[in-house]
Amino acid sequence: MLEKIEQIKSDFDKALQSIGDAKQLEDIRIRFLGRKGLIAQAFTLLAEAPADLKPKLGQGLNQLKKEIEEQYRKAEEAFKEKEKKARRLDLTLPGRKPQNGREHPLIQVANEIKEIFKSLGFVIEDGPEIETDYYNFEALNIPKTHPARDMQDTLYITEDIVLRTHTSPVQIRVMERQKPPIRMIAPGRVYRRDTPDASHSPFFHQVEGLVVGEDISFADLKGVIQAFAHKMFGRDIRVRFRPSFFPFTEPSAEYDFSCVFCRGKGCRVCKGTGWMEISGAGMVHPNVFKAVGYNAEKYTGYAFGMGIDRIAMLKYAISDIRLFFENDLRFLNQF
Ligand code: DAH
Q: Which HAMAP family match (predicted)?
């Protein structure tokens, strides 16, 4: 019986070492001090002990019970104190800054372009990215044999349905449902069958511009592009037009801005020329007016394209278009 008392005592000491959570603490209480716990059991055994030993054993047991109760109380207190400390706020810790999202650089630049054209009296239009052959090509005076329709460039869904290769089909959709005067831009995503590299991506972004009315001239086109260049890149930027060809405009031109990095002096980015190619433009072809039922004798108009990705790359001196589409936060956090 005395041995038993020693055993309970040493088991209890061992158990106290391993209090990890409130449940373990409670388990110890039940195991030793519970109604059917080890101490209660020992008292039951006491009844069967020889009469002459009873007083000594009883004393020993009572002593054990007192000690265990006392130690348990202390352990419980220490445990609760420890928990309280762990929960207390450390006011000296620096605050945690939430990671705020922000607009993608291409969205920022697109918004800037939209604001500039809105200030020039343009309205914003929109069209589907999945287009029919008719809107993407046919109505824009791009015949079946035109090289732009080559499987190399166009992503076909069916023979008659494509992912639009440019934003120009929005011109057709707007003119079909609206009479002149028209003064619109249409920003959006376009698709081409290209292998990605520093300057190519299978999808990118364009802004289409279209102005139709009476007595609209090439001089108006030049004025608007010039005004855009000044507002976007600064008043010292010069614009030049070079003769070119597009099926949906006649005459057609490509236009360049003087290099935004060297301001036209010639540098590595503009390959020493002082100029950077932007996109194409021209006077709306009579066949395009015919396709939408406009009177080509009465109305004239100009149209232009613009690459949003390209403008953004110039604005922020970004040398690889793929950076826009990789969503690397180290890149995006800089805007
Ligand atoms: N659609 C042409 C392209 O994707 C860009 C363009 C050129 C648009 C001339 C026009 C234009 O409106 O007049 O390369």
A: Phe_tRNA_synth_alpha1
CB 136 within 8 A of CB 94: no
Q: What is the pLDDT of residue 213?
A: 98
Residue 307, ligand 1, Cβ within 6 A: no
Residue 254 and residue 219 in one domain: yes
Query: Among 279, 283, 287, 288, which residue has the most ligand 1 atoms within 8 Å of its CB, making it the best to mutate?
Result: 279
Residue 199 has pLDDT above 80, yes or no: yes
250 labelled ligand-binding: yes
Choice from 200, 246, 308, 310 to test ligand 1 binding pocket (greatest atom count within 8 A of CB): 246
Q: Is 280 in the pocket of ligand 1 (CB under 6 A)?
A: yes
Q: How far is the CA of 325 from the centre of ligand 1 (A)?
A: 23
Question: Could you tell me if residue 126 is inside a domain?
Answer: yes
pLDDT tens for each residue of 235-261: 999 999 999 999 999 999 999 999 999
| Boundary of a domain, candidates 30, 62, 88 | 88
Do 82 and 157 fall within a single domain? no
According to DSSP, residue 51 is labeled: T
- Expressed as residue numbers, the domain containing 37 is 2-88
Does the N-terminal peptide bond of residue 181 adopt cis geometry, omega within 30 degrees of 0?
Answer: yes
Residue 150: pLDDT band with limits 50, 70, 90: confident
Select the more confidently predicted residue: 68 or 256.
Answer: 256
How many domains does one find in the chain?
A: 2
| Residue 210 alpha carbon, nearest atom of ligand 1 | 12
Alpha carbons within 13 angstroms on the beta-carbon side of residue 333 total 5
Tally the C-alpha atoms within 13 A of residue 171's C-alpha that lie toward its C-beta.
32
Query: What's the pTM value of the predicted model, to 2 decimals?
Result: 0.73
One domain for residues 12 and 149: no
**pLDDT band for position 89 (cuts 50, 70, 90):** confident
Q: Ligand 1 atom 6: the closest Cα is on which residue?
A: 305
